[in-house]
């Protein structure tokens, strides 16, 4: 927080402006800790028509756009003041005025913008002895976006008895941090609650941006850093230590930023500087220019004993191999022939007229003949020993690097690890001290290699992702350096197993539960198998297979239907914690549930930090059945523990009112949240939300729980935009969904979200939940649009039956619409499973390029539904009507002011034109632009002529 004003921190008089003079009064007092404070008070409760103003001094806002105002005040309850009926009020109003500088001490009401009417939560509380004590209220309001340099706050009293104990004004900042070796500066949060400010990181010293992957982060309105993308990596010569790059030590080098670690100098090389990208060869040792720095340096070693014999114009040459071949046997020889003048000695290459037998180069044997030489000429012959790696040197350079590691065997493939073994290379050319295993994710665009080293001929590579293809290569290391990598080997890790494994990583208690369940099942299996086996013994072997295949081996914690409990109270207490009502503080009503009010409040459990919670209450005068149904939701929710499933804190059943206490989801239900922030999120953010919902559903389906009413209205969103599945209960709880209607098959069904087989013959399965999930995807990508718009339920059923499906929402990446269509396969076996959906979305998030949609290029199926989503633009008579149809009427004035009075002129607009209207939200720009393009296409179709753009 960055504090702009804190009235409590000021020791001298505040000297705010108060008008009229008999209204607000500055009074010195003591706060609850007996610290001296300045307060303003007013209490003109006897006189009618009060209008008392109090204005703060000018508050310079710096670069903040969204300002928080925290007020602490006490307010007297009018009932406690005798004889004030009719004149006494219990609220006051908060205003602000933006200015670029101080504006003097006069106060003009009409220049102020109202922020809110402030009321006390409670005017009084009852003290221990029954006396009434004044209660300190705290209220926070947010103002913004602010555009001027500063502002004033003003408090209008209309006849209440108020003491303003403290006024604190602040804004939120994401504080400078280092992430992925990039520094992100202090960043002031955006102007809107939902805005994420994108910030580019600067690489720390001695680091550089990874190619095409520059570091970015997003500063949320809450002052938290979110969604890191891209990274910096340490430059050649430097390696990462914590949040910094440190130079490689002496005797070490790192040749490229891609390498993770500094390596020891290869054989016969050294460096005495820190931060080297390569090592220099020891005296008398060499390395070719084209050699990578990882290659060892080798010594010169000459061919010896070159002898010749001349026969007319033919010369025979013979020599001994170099003394040191370094163990390498791919040495060949080459002859360089030059003809030299006698005096002074100047030589030129012999040229093509001279012949060599068997060849001039590539000689394996240590002799050759040179023919067709000129008579009486002076020739010089040099014999070079050349090896397979380099033929640069005129001296005899020999390499002893080991040959390829080619025979690799996959020993064990698991979800997150792969065990490999291999044979020593055929030509080790020395003692192999180490193997290097290099691997990367096959489908990753910017290939990032990782390496593992092993001293033996096997290794286990850990920390891999499940169901992911990796490519492995291995090379050997000897004193002479690394050999070349062997062939690539592709291995795919196993699919991620059921939730048991996922959740067991989070919660060791579940492992025990899982083992216990598994144990029981095995027992049942054996007993069952035995009995059935006996019973069917005469019928032959098929007897066993039928019942056995009915036994689903769960491998995971399984959902238990609370209805199977005879005593529903036992079910509740089996799965939900009974809370003491005194730990719960109800603060305000936030919604209406089927059984009573839904409130927000706080839960303070002994020894734990207090937390925000939602509290569902059961209204008074309930029947026993209502109580059972109400608590049923807790019995279901209490069985779940997943970050994308709303978490139950506990229940109060032993006091009144009966309550269910749930984690608080600040942003309420997803459908309303999206409608409120129409067009304001990036596709990645939307896909992130969808990923969360799919992960929650994967968990539920792994538990064997079928939701039956998955819809955006039943997803809750918290302040970090995390989506969680909610609304649990038994099938009949759907009856409470206002979207659910009676169908001919009996029971109420939310038709637009429900798979055809569930509508027709109540076949509710995880596959029907997948269908609903597809509809949720559509709701999310269209920012809370109603599926199938205003079509009737009957028409929806008919259209689906005839094969029509919802078209892609505006600007929806084609890949996402394809996934929706897959979820809406008629044959439920063809629909993807939730785990597949999660991994598809993960891939999209990892490769944001797959989510790019050029404006207006979304493919829409040609079906009658098309007309529903694409208004007929030629039918609009004015720009205003058009803007209304695409829900962008808020920009009507922008269009008018810029002179776009007719639809024809709008149809000619480019994206730059749209931006120049002052429409800053990218989502809105896209929505408008894509609508303009459709309009253009429709006009073209209608008039048969092109609109020139
Ligand atoms: P429900 O009875 O679950 O449909 O809840 C009624 C309304 O209360 C919902 O539409 C939400 O707006 C709100 N609500 C329910 N649970 C929570 C929660 N955990 N956090 C915040 N709001 C909630």
From TrEMBL:
The record's listing under SMART domains reads: EPH_lbd, Ephrin_rec_like, FN3, SAM, TyrKc
Which residues does the UniProt record annotate as the domain SAM? 874-938
Residues given in the record as ATP binding sites: 590-598, 616
Eph LBD domain: from which residue to which, for each copy? 1-179
Sorted alphabetically, the Gene Ontology BP terms of this entry are: apoptotic process; axon guidance
Q: What is the active site of this protein?
A: 709
Name which cysteines form disulfide bonds.
43-161, 78-88
Instruction: List, alphabetically, the GO terms of the cellular component aspect.
Output: dendrite; plasma membrane
Looking at its record, which EC class is this enzyme? transferase
Q: Tell me the Pfam families matching this sequence.
A: EphA2_TM (PF14575), Ephrin_CRD (PF25599), Ephrin_lbd (PF01404), Ephrin_rec_like (PF07699), fn3 (PF00041), PK_Tyr_Ser-Thr (PF07714), SAM_1 (PF00536)
Q: Which PROSITE patterns match?
A: EPH_LBD, FN3, PROTEIN_KINASE_ATP, PROTEIN_KINASE_DOM, PROTEIN_KINASE_TYR, RECEPTOR_TYR_KIN_V_1, SAM_DOMAIN
Localization in the cell = Cell membrane
Q: Which CDD domains match?
A: FN3, PTKc_EphR_A, SAM_EPH-A7, TNFRSF
Q: Where is the Protein kinase domain?
A: 584-845
Q: Please list the reactions this protein catalyses.
A: L-tyrosyl-[protein] + ATP = O-phospho-L-tyrosyl-[protein] + ADP + H(+)
Name assigned to this protein? Ephrin type-A receptor 7
